[in-house]
Amino acid sequence: KAGVTQTPRYLIKTRGQQVTLSCSPISGHRSVSWYQQTPGQGLQFLFEYFSETQRNKGNFPGRFSGRQFSNSRSEMNVSTLELGDSALYLCASSLAGARDGYTFGSGTRLTVV
Amino acid sequence: KQEVTQIPAALSVPEGENLVLNCSFTDSAIYNLQWFRQDPGKGLTSLLLIQSSQREQTSGRLNASLDKSSGRSTLYIAASQPGDSATYLCAVIRTGANNLFFGTGTRLTVIP
Known about the structure:
- The complex is a heterodimer.
- By secondary structure, chain A is an all-beta fold.
- Chain A contains no helices and eleven strands.
- Chain A has strands at residues 5-7, 10-13, 19-24, 31-38, 42-50, 53-57, 64-68, 74-78, 87-94, 103-104, 108-112.
- In chain A, the strands form two sheets. In chain A, strands 2, 4, 5, 6, 9, 10 and 11 form a seven-stranded mixed sheet that branches. A four-stranded antiparallel sheet of chain A has the order 1-3-8-7, with no helix packed on it.
- In chain A, a hairpin with a 5-residue loop joins strand 7 (64-68) and strand 8.
- Chain B is built from no helices and eleven strands.
- Chain B is mostly beta strands.
- In chain B, 0% of the residues lie in helices and 60% in strands.
- The relative contact order of chain B is 0.35.
- Classes of the chains: A mainly beta, B mainly beta.
- At the A-B interface, strand 4, strand 5, strand 9 and strand 10 of A face strand 4, strand 5, strand 9 and strand 10 of B.
C-alpha cells in the first residue's frame, strides 16, 4: 500500500518567487493537511482539506494557499517567497480526519535564497 | 490555546535501557493523541494513536499511556536499541478540531 507521496523532495527558490508543492494521499484517504516545520517554531498547522473543501486553517498569511482535487491530491502554493519561508513542508493524510489518525509524507525541503 | 510540552528536550541512554518520554498538554478537551518519530531530515512516522476514551496503546516495545484529567501522556520504550535514536513528537487534537498540535519533541540517542 503506497504511503503519502510529496513532490518535489527539495526546492531552492529566490525571494519573491512563488512555489507549488504537491501531495498525493494514501488511496481512499479524503483528508489532507499541511504543516510547516522550522527549527525555531517547530511544527505548525497550515490548513486541512476534505473533499475539495478547506475545512480548517492555521495562522499563516494569505501568501500561503492550497487546494484539493477530486482525486484527493492536494497542492500548496506560496507566493512572494520570503527567507523565513525556508522550511520542511509536510503533508498528512487521513481517512476522514481526527478520529483516524494521520500518516505523514517525507516532506518537501524548501530553501529560499 | 492548546500548548504541548515535552520533557526532556534531549535524552541519551545506553543500549538496552528502558526509558520514558513525557508529554503534557494544557487543554484536556482532546479528541486523541498521537506519538510520532522523526529521523533527521525525514518526515514523521506514526507510532501510536490513543483515542480520548482509551488509557493506553501498545505496539511491540512501545507503550503509550494517556491521562486526560492531568493532561499527560507517556511513551515507554523497552529495551532500547540504537535504531530507536530519533526525535519523538507527541501531538494532540482538540475536540471539534481536525489539526494536530505538536510538542517540541524529545531527541533520543541510544548509545551502543
